[in-house]
Amino acid sequence: MAERTIVVDGLTLNYEGIFSVADLFQVIENWLREKGYDKRETRNQEHVKPSGRYIELLLEPWKKVSDYARLVIKMEIYMHDITDVDVEKDGRTLRLNNGKLSIVFFGFLETDYELRWEARPFYVFTRTFFDKLFYRAYTKEYTSLLASSIYELHTFIRTHLNMYKV
User: Fold this and answer.
1) Which residues have CB under 8 Å from 143's CB, separation 6+?
2) Alpha carbon distance 128, 166 (integer Å)
3) Terminus-to-terminus CA distance in the chain, angstroms?
4) Domain holding 148: CATH number?
5) Which among 21, 28, 104, 143 is least surrounded, fewest beta carbons within 10 Å?
6) What's the pLDDT score for residue 63?
7) How many domains does the chain have?
């Protein structure tokens, strides 16, 4: 089984107000593509309730940094009470959404994700030995790269959402 090291655990972004759901998804997708991540959407649910729509989305984009390690960002996106509103800006009417948004970020460093070192107990021992002695510098570099990427994405989304505040 691939070894997962937790790098970022539960970094949360909360927002309440006017925003565009479609623009938010587009901004996230563009950022991931720009940084070289492959997007994996594991859950996408939408429920219509009397108070508004409830949208739940689970994204797990990953980026291969070597044949042995990859970076995984897990994003849990929850949207509550999403309603459509018309906003007039610069003489034009825009169709936006109003509601509550919560995004929880997790970051994992997966090593031996292709399970090459799992066939025999000796291989597992050898992998652990190499991880502790030789790959420590690489692991440290990868964890700092992942943490900085997650904090950059968090700031990027927060900045995008703050553009909608009046």
Assistant:
1) 5, 7, 109
2) 54
3) 49
4) 3.40.198
5) 104
6) 93
7) 1
Q: 107 is written with which tokens?
A: 């970051």
Decide: helix, strand or coil at residue 39.
coil
> CA of 124: how far to CAs of 2, 117, 127, 129, 130, in Å?
11, 6, 5, 9, 10
pTM tops 0.70, yes or no? yes
Closest CA to 4 of 104, 103, 75, 73: 73
Tens digit of each residue's pLDDT (9 = 90 or more) over 47-106? 999 988 999 999 999 999 988 789 999 999 999 999 999 888 888 888 899 999 999 999
Number of Cβ atoms within 10 Å of the Cβ of 116: 11
**3-class secondary structure, 124:** helix
For the chain, list the strands marked E by DSSP: 3-19, 41-49, 52-59, 62-64, 69-89, 92-111
Name residue, tokens 């399970």. Answer: 115
Question: Using 50, 70 and 90 to split pLDDT, how confident is the model at 11?
Answer: very high
- The three-point CA angle 46-48-50 to 5° equals 150
Tell me, what amino acid is at 103?
I
Range of the domain at 48: 3-162
